[in-house]
Amino acid sequence: MSAGFTLALCAICVLPSAFAASLPLGPLGAIPRAHFQNRQSIRSTTDPSAVFVPEYAQRESWGILAKYQQSDVLLQGANVSPSGINNNQNGLVGPDVTSGLPAPTSEQIVPLQAISSASDSILSYHAMIDIGTPAQHLGLVIDTGVADSWVAASCNDCETEQFDASASNTYRSFPGDFRQAYGNGYVWGTWSRDNVTASGLTASPQSFGSVTAMDVGNVAYSVSGVLGFAFASISSTKKTPFFESLISEASLPFPLFSVALGRGGDTDDSELCLGCINNSKYNGNITWIPLVSHTYWTIMLSGLQVGGLNTMTTGLLAAIDTASNQIHVPMSVAKRFYATIPGSKPALSYGEGFWTFPCNSSPDIQFIFMGPTFSLDPRDFNLGKTSSSSADCVGAVLGMKGRDLPDNFAVIGSAFLRSWYTVFDYSSGSRIGFGSRSTA
Ligand SMILES: *[C@@H]1O[C@H](CO)[C@@H](O)[C@H](O)[C@H]1NC(C)=O
Ligand SMILES: *[C@@H]1O[C@H](CO)[C@@H](O)[C@H](O)[C@H]1NC(C)=O
Ligand SMILES: *[C@@H]1O[C@H](CO)[C@@H](O)[C@H](O)[C@H]1NC(C)=O
User: Fold this and answer.
1) Structural domains in the chain?
2) N or C: which terminus of the chain carries fewer CB neighbours within 10 A?
3) Which among 130, 194, 321, 380 is annotated as catalytic?
4) Which helix (H) or strand (E) holds 357?
5) Does 47 participate in catalysis according to the annotation?
6) Is the pLDDT of residue 9 over 50?
7) 271-318 pLDDT, tens per residue?
8) Confidence label for 23 from pLDDT (cuts 50, 70 and 90)
9) Taking the CB of residue 97, how many other CB atoms lie within 10 A of it?
């Protein structure tokens, strides 16, 4: 029995009333917005006249190869046989927990700030997290593609807000080097532990890397750290990830978390819901898709359609990754995909894997996960014009070619997730739920 499954069984036993009683006193309020505004501009991604800024998308393409370099090993044994589709024609699995869930409390709601770089089409979603005693507030990237968390601490070359370990009386460091792929490089330091609190929920103590050095290439924005939400099975040293700590410390009514990602701008409503589903964030019902691997949040992408035509010949293992922007598919899949969009061409000046399409076309793009189809909003498919006077725009579906990556692997980033309220559920055998986002 896997660790995730064991945790899920225990956590379901916890009654919602126990949850309320176990909340720490004095939960924090909303994110102080000024904290982010001091550092980065906040823009909307929906500006149709935006010009594509290649360096950020290129960085992500390189970074994906480093981030997922272990995927070949980690995903071995995952079920991608097309026969898996027939077991679940409509993709609906397990009980529909949405009606039985208590409404989220403010202690469970973590507002996310969508931070843009110079390019309107690239957003990074940060949560204000409290670390240590007394609490220090740091904006950490929410990342469902890694299990380990880290914060910059005593990092001389990091141009970012940092955690001051010496100022926390609950901080402990312990032996063991920490290293994680980030950007198109690495961060490294040592393992440590301290209290980590998101909104009103505390993991105490929580293991994380104290990062003392970064070599991350040209990252698009300054980053104080990452809060990893993937499964413990892919933790480099099998440390319990933050959310699994919350589950085992029995303070959640259900072992699931939900993510709403906005398009930036003043009306952005990005949010993380810990142990809850915010019914106001989506329309209709949640559609559930079973996981095919408890490593990354991996589901089977069984089809990729343009105007109703499927461009895929075989299923892909798709990691749902809140910290990536684009949609990364094998190069051969990207080639067939763009071949069905009239007027599209490879954009080799940006590198292999980039394509343009006519800005005035609005391709009807659908992702099929084990049966049900999910559309990609044309605004999120468009990464921007190649120049201010150009009629060609860069597409958010990128081809990837990594020596070490499995050839049936895809990474689904926020370009897709902005249209779909996403529930990451450890129960019912573990599954992903998508609900149609109710706001523009
Ligand atoms: C922080 O951790 C310590 C030691 O585990 C614990 O006693 C204390 O209650 C924690 N503080 C908070 C705010 O959770
Ligand atoms: C749920 O989402 C709605 C709509 O975005 C928001 O107004 C509300 O604050 C969120 N949180 C709770 C606890 O309902
Ligand atoms: C949602 O699910 C309920 C219960 O299964 C069903 O009655 C209802 O028709 C569904 N609504 C939509 C919009 O699919």
Assistant:
1) 9-437 (2.40.70.10)
2) N
3) 321
4) strand 355-358
5) no
6) no
7) 999 999 999 999 999 999 999 999 999 999 999 999 999 988 889 999
8) very low
9) 19
The Cα 304–Cα 369 span in angstroms is 9
Q: Which ligand is nearest to the CA of 268?
A: 2
Which residues share a beta bridge with 356? Answer: 345, 394
Q: Is 143 a catalytic residue?
A: yes
Q: Of 143, 268, 392, 425, which is the active-site residue?
A: 143
Alpha helices in 349-392, H assignment, sequence order: 378-381
Cβ of 200 closer than 6 Å to ligand 2, yes or no, is: no
State the pairing for strand pair 256-260/271-274: antiparallel
Report the alpha-carbon distance of residue 282 to residue 438 in Å, rounded. Answer: 5
Other Cβ atoms within 10 Å of 166 Cβ, number: 9
Nearest C-alpha to atom 14 of ligand 1 is from which residue? 202
Over residues 419-437, mean pLDDT: 94
The number of beta carbons lying within 10 Å of the beta carbon of residue 253 is 23
Among all chains, which residue has been given the structure tokens 């792929």? 181
Strand boundaries in 108-235, DSSP class E: 109-116, 123-131, 136-143, 150-152, 172-182, 185-198, 201-215, 225-228
Q: What is the CB-side half-sphere exposure of residue 154 using CA atoms within 13 A? A: 9
Dihedral pair phi/psi, residue 62, rounded to 5°:
-70, -45
Spatial neighbors of 100 by CB under 8 A, at least 6 apart, are: none
Amino acid identity at 413: G
Which residues does residue 419 pair with via DSSP β-bridges, in sequence order?
A: none
* Reported confidence tier of residue 219, pLDDT bands at 50, 70, 90: low
> Does 18 score more than 80 pLDDT?
no
Strand segments (E) across 216-296: 225-228, 256-260, 271-274, 282-290, 293-294
Indicate if ligand 1 lies below 6 Å from the C-beta of 133: yes
Q: Are strands 150-152 and 136-143 parallel, antiparallel or unpaired?
A: unpaired
372 neighbors 90 (Cβ within 8 angstroms)? yes
Bond from prior residue into 358 cis (ω within 30 degrees of 0) = no
pLDDT at 46: 65
Report the alpha-carbon distance of residue 186 to residue 213 in Å, rounded: 9
